[in-house]
Amino acid sequence: MLFMDVSTWDPSNRDRILEHFKKLEIPDGIDVINQWVDLSGNRYYILYEAESAEAYGAFNLPWSDVCVIDSVPVMEASEFMQLLPKYQKKV
Fold it and tell me: For the whole model, what pTM was predicted?
């Protein structure tokens, strides 16, 4: 499943965030597609695919002591549009 995470942190945690990044190892079952940093600071965006709940947890839980991660399952709009007819109510 594809996820878009937005991580935010308190400016006082900047050094701890940098230490986490230096030690970052992508766990098996995670495929990072792209990542972005907010130039105004304190936010990080990442788009990735997780093979399982275990991989998802292994990727996000180590950060829970230094930042808040808003994680949203996403799909391309064209794929979503193909699903719509299947779930629309018949009137």
Answer: 0.84
